[in-house]
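#dry-run=false #mode=assembly
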Amino acid sequence: MVPLWMFLVVAAALFAIGLFGVLARRNAVAILMGIELMLNAVNINLVAFWRYLTPDTMMGQAFAVFVFVVAAAEAAVGLALIVAIYRRRQSVVAEDVNLLKW
Amino acid sequence: MIDWTNANILPWLIPVPPLIAFALIFLVTNRSWWLTVITALTGTILSWGLAAAVFLRAVGAPILGLYAPEHFGPNAFGSQVPWMATGATQFNVGVLVDPLTVIMLFMVPLAILMIMLYSVGYMYHDPRRERFFGYMTLFAGAMLTLVVADNLLLLFIGWEIMGFCSYSLIGFWFEKESAYKAGVKAFMTTRVADVIMLLGIAYLFAETGTLNFRDIFFNEEMLHQLATTPALLFGGAFSAAGLIGVFLVVGTIGKSAQFPLHVWLPDAMEGPTPVSAMIHAAAMVSAGVYMVIRMYPLLEAGADPHHGIYSPPLMLMAYIGAFTALFAAVIAISQNDIKRVLAYSTISQLGYMVAALGIGAYVAAAFHLITHGIFKALLFMSSGAVIHGMEHGEHHAHEHGHHPHNVFEDEGKPFDPQDMRNMGGLKDRIPVTWWAFLAGGMSLAGFPLFTAGFWSKDEILAESWNLGLGGEGFGPAIFVFILLVVGAFLTAFYTTRQLALTFAGEPRTEAAEHASLGGPSSLVSIFMQGPLIVLGVLALITGYAGVHPSFPVFGPIFSPGGNPFHDFVAETLMHHPPVSDFNLVFTLVLMLVPLAGIGLGWLMYARKPLAAGQEDPGKVALDAISPAIWRWMENKFYVDELYDWAFVRPSYWVSETLVSQIIDRGVIDGTLHFIARAGVFTGELFKRFNRVVIDGVGDGIPQGIGLFSRWFRFIQSGNVQQYMLMVALSAIVLGIVVFWNLIR
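#status=ok
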C-alpha cells in the first residue's frame, strides 16, 4: 500500500494551491475555484484517514459526502452572487467589491 | 386707705406729683401749652404743699397748733417697704425725714416752684417748650426722691436721673453745637465721679450689708468697725470708712463741680437760664453737698475734727473745697458773660460748703447750702431776666434797621446779649430785676447783717477761725480759713463788678438802651418777675434763722433760746456738734472783708461806670503787672485745654484710630477677609484639580480609545481577499500555539 503520508502531502499541496488561489486571484470566479480546491483537499484528507485508520465504519465516507454537498451548494450560491455583481458592475474583480469597509 | 395725717407716710408722696406730671406731659399733654403748664405747676405746687406740711410738722408751728416732736433728731419720720431680697436679708427702701431733710424740704420745693413759674414766662417763645417742662418735672421728682431717700441706693437713683436730666436740659437747644457738646461734657464729667461713688456704695454695702442711713449712722459699733477695718485697696493708709468716704467725696467733687471736675459747670450755661437756676443752684449741685452732709458720720468715722484729728475724706474735702473756692473766685473776676460769672460763683460757694464740712463745721455747711440755694436761684433767674431784656432790646434795634454789634474786640462774632460789656444802665430799664439782682448779689457777697448770705458765710468763717488761727490751730482749718477769707473778698469784688457792669452807668449798646421785659402787664413779665420778688425777700431774711445767741442786737431778737437753726439741725447727728463761742472782735473784723470787696468793686467799676469800648479796669490794672495774668484768668487757667489734650484727644485717638481702624478694620476684618480668601483659594484649587486630573482621566480614556480606533479601523478595507489572508495567518498562528506541545 501507499503510505498514508503521501496522500496527506498531496492533500496539503492541493490545499495550499487552493489557498493561494483564494488569496491572490483577481477574478471572483477564480477565487471560487480556489475554494473548491480547498474543499476537495479536505475531502482527500478525510478519505485517506478513513481508509487507513477506521476502514470498518462508514463515518469517514459519510463525512466526505457531506462536504461534497456543502461544496456544491456553496458553489451555486457563490456563482449566483457573482452573476448578480456582474450585472451591476460589468466586472468580477474581487478587489473592487469593497464598499463594506470603514 | 392712705392716712394723710400720718407724717410717716407723707414723705412718700412728696416726689410723686412731679413724677406723675412728667409722665403726663411726655405722654399726654405735650400738644397743648396750657395743659402742660397746668400739669407741671400742679405737680410742683402739690409737692411743695406736702413738703411744707412735713416741714411744719417737724418744726412745729404753734400758730397752727400742730404737734411737733420734742427732739426731732432721734424721732425722725420715716417708713420703709421691703424691696428686694438680697441673699439671706431683705433690702428695704423707704423715706427718712430728719432735720437735715426738713431744711432741704424747705428750700428745694420752694426753689423748684419759683423756677417753674419763672420758666412759664421764660420759655414762652420757645418752639419746644412742652418738652422742657417734661424734663424739668422729671428733674424735680428726682431731686425730691433724693432728698427724702433713706438709703444710699435710692439717693443714687435720684442722683443719676438728675444727671440724665441735666444732660438733656443743658443740651436743650441741640441745634447749637456748643450746647449739645456741653450736655455731653456735663454728663461725662459727672459720670466719671459717679462710677467712683458707686464703687464706694458697693464697698459700703459689702462691708456692712446695709445702705440705710439710720442703720449706719446711728450705730456706734458699725461706725467703729468701719473705721478700724483696713480698706481693700491701699490698706495701710485708709480704713474702710476712709476709702468709702473718699470715693463718696469724689462723687460730690463731680456732681458739685469742685476742682478738678468743675469743668462742666461753666459750659452748662449753654442751657436755658431756668435750667441753670434749677440744676446749678437749687438742686443738682446742692445734691452733691447734701450727700456729703448726709454721709458726714461716715466721713468723720475714726476722726474728730473738733479736736484736730482728720480722716482722709475730711482732709480731701477741706483742701479741695477751699482751693476750689479761691480758684473759681479768681476766674470769676475776669469773666464777661453774665451767666459765667454766676457759674464760677456757684463753684466757689460750693467749695465753701465742702470745705466747711471738711473741717467739721456741719451745721454751717448745711446753713450755707440752704441760703445759697435761694440766692443763687434768684441770681440766675435775674440774669435770665436781664438776658431776656437784652434780647428784647436787640430785637427792637433790628426792627429799627440798626444791627447791634459787640462793643468790645469784635472778632466778627454775632452780637452777644449775654456779654456784660454790651450792657449798662439797665437799672432804670428793668428795675424789678435790678432790685432782685441787688438782693441776691449782696447776699452772695455777704453784705453784713441784712442778707442771708452774711449769716451763713460768717458762720463758716467763724468755725474755721475757731478751729484754726483763733483757737486750736489745726492745719486744715488754718488753710481753709485763709483761702475762704480771700475768697470772700473776691466774691464781693466780682459781684460788685457784675452789678456795676450790668446795671450802672449808661447803656453801652443800643440793645441795652431798649432793654425791657414787656412792662408790668405782660404775662411773660409777671411770670418771670414774680418769683424774683419772692426769692429776693427770702434772700434777705432767711439768714435770721441761724443767728448766734450772743450776737449783739440780732442775737436776743432771733435766738433767745439758742441758735434755732443750729439746735434743730444738730440733732441729725448722734453726737451734736458744739456751738462755737462768739467772738465780737473777730466778727467785726470779718464784716470788713465783704465791705472791702464791695468798696474796691465800686471804686473800679461803679464810680466811673464803663463806657462803650473801654477796657475792663481790672484788666488794665493787672496788665500793668503782666498781661498773662488776666489772660490766664479769662481762659480759666486752661484746665479745659489740659483735659482736652490729656483725656479727650487720646480717647478720640483710641476710638477712631486704634479701635476703628487698626483693630476693627485691620485685625478683625483682615482675619475675616483672609479666611474668605483662603476658602476661595481652596475652592479654586479643587476646581483646577477636578478639571485637570479627574476630567482629564475621564475624558482621556475615551479619547485614547477613539484615537486607537481611528487608527485601527483601516484594517477593514472591504477587500475580501485581505480578510481571507488574515484568517489564514491567524489559523496558522493559532494552530502553532494550540499544538505547540505536539510539535515539540
